[in-house]
Amino acid sequence: MTIKVAIAGARGRMGQEAVHTIMKDQNMELVSVLDYKEIGETLADTKLFPQTFTVPIFMDLTELSSKTKPDVLVDLTSPESVYQHTREALELGIRPVVGTTGFSDEELKELSAYSAEHGIGCIIAPNFAIGAVLMMKFAEQAAKYLPDIEIIEMHHDQKLDAPSGTAMKTASLIADHRKTHNQGHPKEKETIAGARGANYDGMRIHSVRLPGLVAHQQVLLGGDGQLLTIRHDSFNRGSFMSGVALSINKVMELENLVYGLENIID
Ligand code: NAP
């Protein structure tokens, strides 16, 4: 069965990659695009895509739905619009696959209840990079045996938040299996504030910001006479696309909302 897909945010950096990923996939058809600016009638009019990309653009999700009948809406827009898009898609019976971050806990609870009540699958994935999700899972497992851990996350110097969401998520998954304890010497003293990094449950997180980097993370797990290093690198936005494709396929089998790619990979 061919999965009919619509995209919101197709002009963006992630959206453009997603358009190409879906166009190339034999099991998917890109049937329409949702935008909020008048940018033309088809993707080709945006000048961002080849002239052969004649996928129609809509500014209203209800009209998009009735004219092109997508099974899935991929949202790669902004925190301001993502909740509205997701809610409307569910109400129209379209399964949302959402990469945009910015939901409140309440919004997530509400969407989750709606999705389960109406049996419509929904995936919200703050990190589509499968390698990054595996890194978190492996670190979570390893923490049971090697509970002294430091996380080093490295990103481009335009990133505003530190530590990264992925580092926080990694630490929180590890914390579920690791007995809280402070690491390092009990009497250790920082000569320069921050030298030992941020303290999460006694684990340390270090944030590196440099031009040239994209998104990278190492989890260092130390034991007597040994060190285990689990590392993931995203070199470009292509790293997120296998997760987008996986989610489009998986959401067709779901009848509830799943938050986080780690919950759909075995
Ligand atoms: P971006 O380049 O700014 O792209 C966002 C696009 O969405 C822009 O073209 C924007 O148009 C458009 N847009 C904004 N509001 C819209 C609306 N109401 N309807 C339709 N289109 C709308 O950002 P990006 O780097 O592609 O990232 C997009 C989102 O994905 C961000 O929230 C980012 O944090 C998230 N992200 C997620 C992952 C993941 O793995 N889950 C990875 C990277 C990024 P204008 O520019 O004209 O406003």
TrEMBL record:
Binding positions (NAD(+)): G9, A10, R11, G12, R13, M14, E41, G99, T100, T101, A125, P126, N127, F128
Active-site residue list: H155 (proton donor/acceptor), K159 (proton donor)
Localization, UniProt: Cytoplasm
GO MF entry, a single one: 4-hydroxy-tetrahydrodipicolinate reductase
Keyword Transferase: no
Binding site for (S)-2,3,4,5-tetrahydrodipicolinate: H156, G165, T166
EC code(s) of this entry: 1.17.1.8
GO BP terms, alphabetized: diaminopimelate biosynthetic process; lysine biosynthetic process via diaminopimelate
Cellular component terms per the entry's GO annotation: cytosol
Function: Catalyzes the conversion of 4-hydroxy-tetrahydrodipicolinate (HTPA) to tetrahydrodipicolinate.
Name of the protein: 4-hydroxy-tetrahydrodipicolinate reductase
Origin species: Planococcus halotolerans
Lineage: Bacteria, Bacillati, Bacillota, Bacilli, Bacillales
Gene name as annotated: dapB
